[in-house]
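Each lists chain and fold; for instance:
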Amino acid sequence: MKSLKQTSRSRESNQSWSCPAPLQLCAFALNSAVKFCAIVFLLLALTVTGCTTKSAARQRERAAFYEGQTRAFQEQLAAPRPVTAAPSNVVTILGPVKCPAMIWSPDMTLIKTIVAAEYIPAGDPSQIIVTRAGQQIPVSPAALLNGEDLPLLPGDVVELR
């Protein structure tokens, strides 16, 4: 005859440790719901945050900054400027220069004025307009480079574009 210990051991080996059927169904549903929520959360987090490196973000910021600076500078150049009456002994220079007003002297010419005003951009201006007594006088930059110069008078306004 089998002993009581052997009988209980044989029962343990024949039985698997499992939950009753309703509890197994609940555990399966709960496990599936948790997995589904985790997947949805992960997808949502990736969608909201995006996959961008810091260097790529900085590069886009720099590009946007320079684009804004360039656009603002171009708008400033394109904006019509009212020509105001300057004091009689001053020549006004409009455009990218360090010194926008110069005291007139009898030997003042357009070339000397542009050099003294310290034109900022590396290249030559594409257009030069001298306004004298309300009249606009266009001056070719190429003509200036060829030595043709224009004497300036008190109150002249030189616009460099």
